[in-house]
Amino acid sequence: MSQPLDILRSRFGYPQFRFQQQAIIESLVEGRDALVLMPTGGGKSLCYQIPALLRDGVGVVISPLIALMQDQVDALAQNGINAAFLNSTQSPQQQFETRRRIVKGDIDLLYVAPERALTDDFLQLLGECRIALFAIDEAHCVSQWGHDFRPDYQNLTRLHEHFPQVPRIALTATADRRTLGEIESQLHLQGAQRFVHSFDRPNIFYRITQGDNGRQRMWEFIQQNHAGDSGIVYCLSRKKVEETANWLSERGRHALPYHAGLDKNTRAEHQRIFLQQEAVIIVATIAFGMGIDKPDVRFVAHLNLPKNIESYYQETGRAGRDGEPANAWMAYGLQDIIKLRQMMAQSDADEQFKRVLHHKMEAMLGFCEQSGCRRQTLLEYFDENLAQPCGNCDNCAEPPQTWDATEAARMALSCVYRTGQRFGVNYVIDVLMGNSRDRIVQNRHDQLSTFGIGDLDTNEWRSLFRQLIALGYLFADIDNYGALKMNPSCKPLLNGSQQLRLRQFVKQRKVRKTAAARARVTLQAGDTPLFEALRLHRSELARQQSVPPFVILHDKTLHAICELRPQTTEQLGEIPGIGARKLELYGDDLIRITQQFPATAADSVEDVENR
Ligand code: ADP
Ligand code: ZN
User: Final residue of a domain: which of 138, 169, 196?
Assistant: First the structure.
């Protein structure tokens, strides 16, 4: 009998297992249950695909997303694996044919939605064949408290009751301790071995920028780092989604909107284009996400503050599933904080629920304003400990300057106080800067001791107020036109018993290329023509077979070809991601193309320099 490692190498073309893959696979092969928590892109699929190939019978995969099944089955077919799905998009004739193949034992992996898996009809079908295993993907859907709750998931124990001898594996990327416990008890997986992997996504570079005019800054970021890449831009409102998509299109990018206000067909079409074409940007509300299994999303940008760290982590997690460098970029300003606080205050949730929301939002703000390592904070939030700063986030790469803001904060607070806590940020800043506007003169606020008292400029004051609000010293009263009010926590600052250090306001210098971009540019220096030729060839293959390009070959595989320049089938077979089947299908063409672009002397010099 073949070993897991043989299958990994021959069928999938990967040299080694990652993380705990091997232990998980062995445990299933031997007939034991498993509960797996692994981050997005960690490689969960192989954990049930390989055991399904090694065990007798069909591996039944419960997956909540019908839209993804086609890609999953296509990707397996590319590796010469017989997979199929049963769902409502198929004609009765297709379903009949698929069922026939299942009963005959021709199918190694079968994808179904939970609703169908629980029908008598389906159980009867299963009764007629051998079952290798049950895999329950996105197992957190079982949790009533999560945002992806699917009631049918709670009944999946029925499968186990019917076929108690079949091993089960439940997998998820988004579960805290409590949700894991819920999965275990709801699915009766108490006897399953737990495999919990770190949440960390080391290939994602986190960058958070403060200040106004986020859209322009985002444009510079995209231009510099992702001129030819796919990405997702998240906005809070439908209107902003539309505007931003138009704005990017006017500037020459292929950008498409996605939000719940668009009709179903348009949404499906935009999603399809995003998956199937290169260099498309989707501008979306959070309606876009679940089920986007595109491995080569190179950046996720937020033009608003996400409402909590879970959302931020889940949304940014859609970048770089293939493990290649990717960017999570975000812009926010004073108005965003005020708006978020406002939404929270106006929500009609009950008090206790509101307190939880509020607490989560504070954690998000704290994360944005902090000057230490972002990754350490993120992981800490998920109860994980990263001993050293990561070196792959903005604060690690370019530690922010801080300054003693005690005096300036005191001026700002006392100005709020002296103007009666009745005015918004702009007004208070005008007073502090000594701008004799009509309203200020009418209110006699030009007579105040805080009039024209500071020597900061507008941007510096705005940055200071943003941080005072983010840190909870001040709040903007929405029932009162955003008038700034003081919280009790101001006291120690005002009476001089507390010092305050804040992030220095950074003038908008030229956006530097981030680490992700640097990593990519070095790889591509001199290799660009070959990379582009390979990409073109891949697009052509994808078009012929009506599948997304990443189903044919991943970017990572193309990069490796550029770097290693294989000249023989044997050398090509060594490249990660090229198994026996792909070698047979595409090998000759890939080698022919590679030979058309011989490595130049300049490349080798650069290669040496970059090592
Ligand atoms: P998940 O479901 O955990 O988000 P996937 O199963 O889609 O992740 O795997 C993410 C990517 O990693 C896929 O392209 C997959 O082929 C690749 N992968 C998985 N295991 C390995 C491995 N051992 N070596 C190299 N690549 C792997
Ligand atoms: Zn860091």
Answer: 196
Q: Which atom of ligand 1 is nearest to the CA of 18?
A: 23
- The domain boundary, picked from 130, 161, 196, lies at 196
**What 3-state class would DSSP assign to 360?**
helix
Q: Give the helix/strand (H/E) hosting 244.
A: helix 238-250
Distance CA 50, CA 30 (A): 13
HSE of 121 in the Cβ direction (CA atoms, 13 Å)? Answer: 7
Q: Which atom of ligand 1 is nearest to the CA of 42?
A: 3
Total domains, the chain: 4
Residue ranges making up the domain that contains 367: 204-397
Q: How far apart are CA 406 and CA 432, in angstroms?
A: 15
What is the distance between the alpha carbons of residues 599 and 181, in angstroms, rounded to a whole number? 54
Our CA dihedral for 432, 436, 442, 444, rounded to 10 degrees, sits at 50
User: What are the CA-CA distances from residue 312 to residues 78, 330, 546 (Å)?
Assistant: 34, 10, 33
- Atom from ligand 1 closest to the CA of residue 45: 6
Q: Are residues 407 and 268 in the same domain?
A: no
Whether residues 209 and 163 fall in one domain: no
Q: Domain for residue 516, yes or no?
A: no
Contact (CB, 8 A) for 244 and 304: no
Residue 231 covered by a domain:
yes
Residue 30 lies in a domain: yes
CA distance 78 to 202: 28
User: Residues with Cβ < 8 Å from 582, sequence gap 6 or more?
Assistant: 13, 78, 79, 553
**Residue linked to tokens 């001791």:** 449
In a shared domain, residues 58 and 17: yes
**509, part of any domain:** no
Q: What is the pLDDT of residues 560-573, one digit of tens each?
A: 999 899 999 999 99
Residues 262, 332 share a domain = yes
In tens, the pLDDT along 267-326 reads 999 999 999 888 999 999 987 776 677 889 999 999 999 988 888 998 999 999 888 999
Q: What is the pLDDT of residue 471?
A: 83
Centre of ligand 1 to C-alpha 44, Å, is 7
What's the CATH code of the domain at 485?
1.10.10.10
State whether 493 and 552 are in the same domain.
no
In this structure, the number of other CB atoms found within 10 A of the CB of residue 385 comes to 8
Which residue from 53, 19, 21 is spatially nearest to 34, judged by alpha carbons?
21
Least confident of 247-261, 317-331, 347-361, 387-401: 347-361
Closest CA to 276 of 514, 577, 74: 74
| Ligand 1 pocket residue status of 576, Cβ below 6 Å | yes
- Ligand 1 binding pocket includes 197 (Cβ within 6 Å): no
